[in-house]
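Justification of computing resources. Each target in the renewal requires a structure prediction run like the one illustrated here; the chain below, 163 residues long, is used simply to show the kind of job we budget for.
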Amino acid sequence: METQLTRITKLRKKVAEAGNSKSKNITPANFEKTTGIILRLLERAEQTLTDTLPKARFDWERQGYTSPEKMIDQAEGYLNILKEGKDPLHGKFAEPGGTVIDHCLIKKDGLFHLFYIRGKAATHWPESPTRNFGHATSKDLLNWETHEPVIQSPEKGWDEYQI
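Resulting structure tokens:
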């Protein structure tokens, strides 16, 4: 039986191969977003299996994580959909390898502005400090342009850990 670590290695290779045969049905930005999330899921599963997760700030934050097997299954599912020429995250906004923790959507002059707390996919927020808000714009809520982060918090001080 194949070990989970071997499976992760094989899936990473398939992600690299998928980059050489991008579908015409998926925009480069959406392809990058999805492969970034796939790779982040595989990295998180590997860290869990090898007991190399980053040190946690709070004792309770390791509770409730998805098992490594489920993260690997999710990554493989996304990859299989990509191989079919489809976008598994169609209509969902995220930065490559990232996730939106919380957000605010504003429409001004026909353009949607999404302001969001930036997170890493497959990560529980207390272990990955969020020091700024992301900003993206869209005309149709499907195709997004990511801009430089906004509202930066200090790296030291009473509010150093979160926005």
